[in-house]
Amino acid sequence: MEISYDYYATKAALEWQFEMGVDETIGEMPVNRFDVPAAKPKLKIGASSNIAPIDVIPNVLPVQDAAPDVAKIIASKCDDLESLRNAMGVFDLCALKQGARNMVFADGHDAARVMVIGEAPNRDEDKEGKPFVGVEGKLIDKMFAAIGLSRDAADQNDAIHISMVMPWRPPQDREPNAEEIAMMLPFVQRHVELVNPDYVVLLGNIACSAGLNKVGISRFRGQWAEAFGKPCLPMLHPRALIRDPLRKRDAWTDLLALKGRMKQ
């Protein structure tokens, strides 16, 4: 008997299972999940990275509550963006990693004067492994191009460096919770230190929660503050501007304020 095969139906079914959190198939041989490994796993990192193996990290590693402390230890050992990316790639204490397709690290000039920090990857960003793509990405690019800045600029004075608070997409694009933000915060702090921008732009409530420990972006957008040791400008997330185009006037006002600061 010939079995009919519908490629697109099968593909849609697999994508649905992935969205629901299925991350492995059942093999022919049983797997004992309670087996104790013979040795502690080592961090699998790039050749240029200087991250120490797991053995040097305190025994709090299996304890979820200690995840921010472990992240701080690992992040502090990163001397460049490559090693930071490698370290984040093997950081397994954040459950969001298990359901994401790709880690979204950064884009743009590695020593830009302006660093833009977003919230968490959406479906398009998770698929491409790059921050701010699709409709939101096009809007961000147009916004900063209006004041002479670009993620593709070769000159650091004309460039932006874009990253996110969370490198992995939360299920169904939900907002990351306070525990997840706190867990990844040491990596964000180290990221800012390594780029060493003159100014940081925080886009949306999640980024402001991480950098300023407060939410309610509509109340304090455009008000200069300090985050991660740098002058910081909170701005509306492009998602909010797409929902309410009239708020683009606020974003334009904030961009002009940034341009004015850069000329000082």
Description of the structure:
- The chain has 264 residues and is α/β, with parallel strands linked by helices.
- The chain contains 11 helices and 6 strands.
- A hairpin with a 2-residue loop joins strand 5 and strand 6.
- Helix 2 packs parallel to helix 7.
- It starts with 6 loop residues before the first helix and ends with a helix.
CATH topology title of the largest domain:
Uracil-DNA Glycosylase, subunit E
CATH top level of the largest domain is: Alpha Beta
Contiguous uncertain segments of 5+ residues: 40-63
**Rg for CA atoms:** 20 Å
In CATH terms, the superfamily of the largest domain is: Uracil-DNA glycosylase-like domain
Order of helices and strands: HHHHEEHHEHEHHEEHH
- Structural class based on helices, strands and sheet pairing: alpha/beta
How much strand? 5-15%
Mean pLDDT: 85
Question: Which sequence of strands runs across the widest sheet?
Answer: 1-3-2-4-6-5
Number of helices: 11
Largest sheet: 6 strands, mixed
Q: Which characteristics define this entry?
A:
10% strand, Uracil-DNA Glycosylase, subunit E, alpha/beta, 264 residues, 2 domains
Summarize the structure.
The protein has 264 residues and is of the alpha/beta class. Helix content is 41%, strand content 10%. Strand 5 (225-227) and strand 6 (230-235) form a beta hairpin.
Write the layout of secondary structure elements.
Elements: H1 7-19, H2 67-76, H3 81-89, H4 96-99, E1 106-108, E2 114-118, H5 123-128, H6 134-145, E3 160-164, H7 178-195, E4 199-203, H8 204-212, H9 217-220, E5 225-227, E6 230-235, H10 238-243, H11 248-263
Parallel strand pairs: 2-3, 2-4, 4-6
Antiparallel strand pairs: 1-3, 5-6
